[in-house]
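Hey L., structure's done. Input below.
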Amino acid sequence: MTPIQCSREAEIIEVISAGRWPAQTHPELRDHVKSCAICSDVTTVALAMREHHDTTVDIAVPSAGLVWWRAELRARREARRAAERPLTLVHGLAGACAIGVMAAVLSQMSPLFNRFFASLIAFMPESPTLLLQQHLPLALGLGALVVLAPLALYFVFSDK
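Output:
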């Protein structure tokens, strides 16, 4: 029956893990490794593991102060984003209002719009004509605001 363990395995593993194999090893242990099949296999595996350990890059763990500082920066960044959300909503609404007011002012000042609205008003009865003529630019501006406000809010809150 073949033995599955050798009494000197632990000693060989200790020598190899300490990095003393084969130069700083007692000649008796080297002779034993040459004659014992189990210790020879253990030496081969342990040397391969030691070589792999030596070639791997050590991971540098950052200091606790650096980790704390980065966590503080992240917390501040998240707090700033949370505070900016209502401001983004207000900016979107202000942009939509500005577009509506600009449309109302342009329609009031442009002669092309005035002629177009005058031709529309000419076909209407007298009393609604005066009311429509006075408030049509405002109604168009509010209509533009109602159409553009959801669009502006979509672009403000989209993550793209």
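The chain has two domains: 9-55, 79-157. Residues 79-157 form one domain.

-- N.
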